[in-house]
Amino acid sequence: MAAPIAKGWCWAWRHRGFILKRKPRCFCFRLEFLSTVSGGSGLLSSLNKRGIIKDAFPDSAAQVELPRLLESAPQTVYCGFDPTADSLHVGNLLAIIGLLHFRNAGHNAIAVIGGATAQIGDPSGKTTEREKLPSDVVEDNTRGIRESLQRIFTNHELYYSGSEHGLGTFTVLNNASWYRGWDVVSFLSDVGRHFRMGTLLSRHSVQSRLNSPEGMSLTEFSYQLFQAYDFHHLNQNHDCRIQLGGTDQLGNLMSGHEYIHKVTGQEVYGLTTPLVTSTTGDKLGKTGGNAVWLNQDRTSPFELYQYFLRQPDSAVEKYLKLFTFIPLAEVDQVIDLQRQDPGKRPAQKRLAAEVTKLVHGKEGLESAKRCTRALFHSSLQALQQMSDSELQVLFREAPFSELLLEPGTTVLEACRRVQAVPDGARGYRMVTEGGVWINHSRADNPDQVLIPGQHILANGLTLLRVGKKNFYIVRWLNL
Questions:
Q1: What is residue 2's DSSP assignment?
Q2: Are the beta carbons of 58 and 33 closer than 8 angstroms?
Q3: Residue 253 to residues 117, 128, 213, 244, Cα–Cα distance (Å)
Q4: pTM higher than 0.90, yes or no?
Q5: Where are the transmembrane segments (predicted)?
Q6: Phi, psi torsion values for 397, nearest 5 degrees
Q7: pLDDT at residue 252 tops 90
Q8: For 289-309, b where at least 16 C-beta lie within 10 A, e where not — what string?
Q9: What is the pLDDT of residues 144-192, one digit of tens each?
Q10: Phi and psi at residue 472, to the nearest 5°
């Protein structure tokens, strides 16, 4: 007869035999967590009502300990971001917003950029091992992510804070700074001895990779040790007792909790945010190839604005709660307006405006609206206010030319100089047949001399369109 199994463990089938596997402690109280927290009035209750918190652990966290801790004094919460690209993306935004809510409630927020862990590679949610990044690329990526985080936190403080508790502190750290003094022997001797293989192997991220055709390298397998030590380092040096991460980070969060509890005896807590997916159910991020970036040199304010403006009615209420700081009562009012006149898309417009202002500030939002009016509403005023860079973003594939304006230059000559129409009779016919537009107005007289204010905007630009999709941008140099 098999021996009895200790509480908290279960038998699991693995290849040709059984292994002992620890039950994840957080899942068993998911429903209790939601019902307990949603009835309260504190920070966790607010985050739960907005859908920002998905799970918490250990078992007693939601019922008693964590709410009591958050109400007792300002706490420190952290979230990690590996610099595997030079910008964060919309898939990271919900974790950032979680940190902002904690800071707005008077708690201290730490964003850890994984300068060390990026070179190891997190296997969570990955089907293959991440390609090793050169150290100089990691440094460049770290700078880009630091700038993105600081910009978003500054915008939140400027436009959305208004907290009666007073804002907590915000700190950006790089975990490479605390691994420089470690060698591999010391790390394994001091840290590795506190981890058990059965527990590490039971993690979902590890199991899915071990059972895949490619398998899993020792480097990737060790990632959870490093993330656990990150939590321990922050706990000891910054009195951090709460870690925030996406649901795909659950195993890593649990490793940190167990390591700290073993080494210090202190209770720490983990909170997860739901993963943001596309309309097809795919995780938004670099791996899926569908990333919407938070740095404007990757995704412009206009493109970010349009991404949220295009969200379907079925998702917009959820996204208003997740990605904005609009009070829930006001979200209900916006959704009521949406139901009354869905064609005007008031909910999508509010969502797009709020997210763009948080990520890119008021200037970024105004740029996005200007580009939207110029492209979709044929606004001549918006077109005149646009900068060269906005035009090039808006008409990304359009050739950009700088020309000297010669006296008497005609519509046909301007088109030919930028090679928008061919030489000869065919180009002439393209104009007379109405195939050419200048600054959103049809220009069907090839011999018409260009008129400032009509064909040449006050900012010295001309937008040519031939056919439906072929744009050309001209800057006149000698006005």
A1: P
A2: no
A3: 15, 21, 26, 8
A4: no
A5: none
A6: -90, 0
A7: no
A8: ebbbbbbbebbbbbbbbbbbb
A9: 999 999 999 999 999 998 766 689 999 999 999 999 888 888 888 888 8
A10: -140, 135
Distant-in-sequence, close-in-space partners of 169: CB < 8 Å, separation ≥ 6: 103, 108, 109
Beta-bridge mates of residue 436: 466
Q: Return all residues near 273 (Cβ < 8 A) that are at least 6 apart.
A: 52, 53, 54, 94, 95, 98, 244, 245, 246, 247
**Contact criterion met (CB below 8 Å) for 287 and 126:** yes
Q: Let me know: does 417 contact 401? Beta carbons within 8 Å.
A: yes
- Report the C-alpha gap between 270 and 261 in whole angstroms: 13
The SS3 of residue 112 is strand
Beta-ladder partners of 402:
475
Distances (CA, A) of 391 to 300, 306, 310: 11, 16, 21
**Which of 89, 43, 105 lies closest to 271, judged by CA?**
43
Amino acid at 466: V
323 contacts 305 by C-beta, under 8 angstroms: no
Instruction: Band the pLDDT of 413: cuts 50, 70, 90.
Output: very high
